[in-house]
Amino acid sequence: MNIIETFKIAISSIWANKMRSFLTMLGIIIGIASVITIMALGQGSKQKIGDEFENFGVNRIYIGLNWSNEKVDYWRDGVTSTDLQLIKKVFKDDLVAISPSESARGEVAHKKGKEKVDVKAVGDQYGSIEKIDIFKGRFLTKEDVASRRPVAIIDQELAKAAYKSVDVLGKKVKVDTGDRMLSFTIVGIYKKPESAFDKIGQSFGEAPSTTIYCPISILTDPSVAKYYGVEAAVADKDRVDEVKDRIVSFMHKKKGMDTSAGDFYRGYSAQQEMNQLGSVLGIVSGVVGAIAAISLLVGGIGIMNIMLVSVTERTREIGIRKAIGATKNSILFQFIVESMIISGLGGIIGTLLGMLISKIAGSFIGFEGVVSLPTVMVAVSFSCGVGMFFGIYPANKAAKMDPIDALRYE
After folding, report:
1. 349-388 burial, b for 16+ CB within 10 Å, e for fewer?
2. What is the rounded distance in angstroms from the CA atom of residue 119 to the CA atom of residue 139?
3. What is the per-residue pLDDT across 265-297, written as a single tens digit (0 to 9) for each?
4. 99, 179, 212, 320: which could form a disulfide with 126 (CB 3.0–4.6 Å)?
5. Where are the domains of the chain?
6. List of residues 6+ apart from 213 with CB closer than 8 A
7. What CA–CA distance (Å, rounded) separates 405 from 410?
């Protein structure tokens, strides 16, 4: 019997028991759909995180005090304006921009209520570190920082909430930080890009974050001129961690610090954070995917069970075929092909279902699932492999039947 004829017999046998065949496929369908959905969402989340960090700036670094070291003292070890100028000079070929950075939490009161805000005090170069899309007005200048001008850049959502308009340049915005009231003149309006993290937070009832940028001299004492840390943009994004570590080492050497008991300064990079987050998501996706794949084992056992039933039902057919010359291998091949067709169809349906579920789920959580061709090929191939593995025993049982016993079977 040739291969085409074997496939025709297998399909006709499956079609003759449509409902039973579908129920047998169900375990494979659920298993493959679960794995595809998890892998698609996992890959989509990694891609979205990459896009988010690309917008945030993958070449960004932060150098600040290492508070895990009990010997760290802000008044002694804080980054000074002199330190900042020296870093600029020594690393001028490695850095695009550098700025001190301080922050405070507060609230902006308006007629309809209050808006929680983050007040971020930075230098004039900060606009070259973080991508801030200013569509009205301007960013901070050297004169703003040097003269301690109470000016601020706010986002359009805060402008709409507080003033019902984005035409608010020159107007005042007051921020209550709890220990003092800050009053700023608005000199710029920026548009905050949509973020998947904000969408996820909103789904859990969290309000989207709002940041107000103001001169670093507003939140720090100019007479002290010390900062908890500085942010910078590295020129070569492939050398981000190298430059970060060199700056930390430079700070320790400049101040003559003994780091045998621990570092006084610590560096962080956006690339490092992205890699760590991607690694965690990869582990979570792998573990959940492995758990979902257990249903494939259950589906395989279901295929074995149905194929055993099919062998029993077709005992006389097997006897007749053997009596007219069918070989052991042809009988074996026929039943393996049937089990592979059942599992393969289940794999295809499960893949399509998984792609649909991942697309629907992605619309709710803020990013689309990504299903690659290799993933689809592996899923379908794996489902066929499950069918072949669990079909071997029933097929072997059919192939070993004695034709005389099979013909006597009622």
Report:
1. bbbebbbebbbebbeebbbbbbbeeebbeebbebbbbbbb
2. 15
3. 998 887 777 676 667 767 776 776 677 667 777
4. 99
5. 3-53+277-408, 95-234
6. 120, 121, 122, 126, 132, 139, 140, 152, 153, 188
7. 10
